[in-house]
């Protein structure tokens, strides 16, 4: 073999080694795969994995007092299955992982799951969404395990209304969790508020004022039809993002309210000059954010969801348990996102059509947010 090809080969080898070394240094996957994309040119680098369906609250916009038909324990993804899925997704370019539920702190090995996820090559940040009730018990361990961001769900600052909406007590515990998360130095502390007309709309500005002294992000999320058919259908509680933004701008404009940077779904973000934190509105039902969609969802029972409003079944758990190879799992994710509709409206339409055709499959439909993972 002539010298220069030898040099090229050794140069190639050196380059290969160099990129392997830098991948290692950057903790990037050793065998990266092409990113996960759909036919609409979007790239999916953020996965939300529900680790449990059970929850220690019974929010009226999510499930009835008696709960929903929770999957049996052996139907829920095991820890090793979750980590395998994360490792494969990280090879496909996923960099952000969020653990949701149900209530993730109800799952006894949540700290272990976070700790192992932080070490997965390619994963840049691990986040969790919690209702904050048990968070104080795990907060220090989660921070030490490397949890980067925590979103705490809280829809009212008033104890009586908290009990009305969650059917449990505990507003003080949740407020304590917000302060504890800031105190422990989580780089991202956010408060998720499902804003409903005729219930907590009168607290919109009180929640904004939380950001005066706290370095947190308060996000007002539009109410969505995943309430197990409880209150959505009466049509009385939906408050649109446009309406909420109008209320915020009218109130804070005199104080020089300025637009602020948010994540891809935090469309309408604001900061009042001099305030430590910021607030914004997420048009989760208006669905004006679909063009930026970057989300992969995996439900607690191991189904891939290519959209919050989709009900197309991609049975990841079954594939994992019948010996599916990494390539098989990659192929299932690619199929799921190749099928993805351009927005949540089309996905919802397709789901309703499918529901009419496969009436028998209705049991698989996910009426409650606790069966999706948010
Ligand atoms: S509605 Fe569906 S497509 Fe739109 S942002 Fe949500 S998950 Fe993405």
Explain what you see:
The structure is a single chain. The protein has 374 residues and is an alpha/beta fold. It has a domain at 46-292: Aldolase class I (TIM Barrel). It contains 11 helices and 11 strands. It has helices at residues 3-25, 79-91, 110-118, 135-145, 159-166, 171-183, 204-209, 241-252, 316-321, 326-338, 344-357, and strands spanning 46-50, 96-100, 125-130, 149-153, 188-195, 217-222, 258-259, 268-271, 278-282, 295-298, 304-305. An 11-stranded mixed sheet has the order 7-8-9-6-5-4-3-2-1-10-11. The termini are far apart. Residues 287, 289-290, 293, 295, 307-309, 343-344, 347 line the site of iron/sulfur cluster (SF4).
What labels would you give this structure?
14% strand; single chain; alpha/beta; 34% helix; 11-stranded mixed beta sheet; binds iron/sulfur cluster; TIM Barrel; 374 residues; globular
Sequence-ordered SSE layout with sheet pairings:
Layout: H1 3-25, E1 46-50, H2 79-91, E2 96-100, H3 110-118, E3 125-130, H4 135-145, E4 149-153, H5 159-166, H6 171-183, E5 188-195, H7 204-209, E6 217-222, H8 241-252, E7 258-259, E8 268-271, E9 278-282, E10 295-298, E11 304-305, H9 316-321, H10 326-338, H11 344-357
Parallel strand pairs: 1-2, 1-10, 2-3, 3-4, 4-5, 5-6, 6-9
Antiparallel strand pairs: 7-8, 8-9, 10-11
The helix/strand series, from N terminus to C terminus, equals HEHEHEHEHHEHEHEEEEEHHH
Query: So, the CATH homologous superfamily of the domain at 46-292?
Result: Aldolase class I
List the strand order in the largest sheet: 7-8-9-6-5-4-3-2-1-10-11
Helix content class: 25-40%
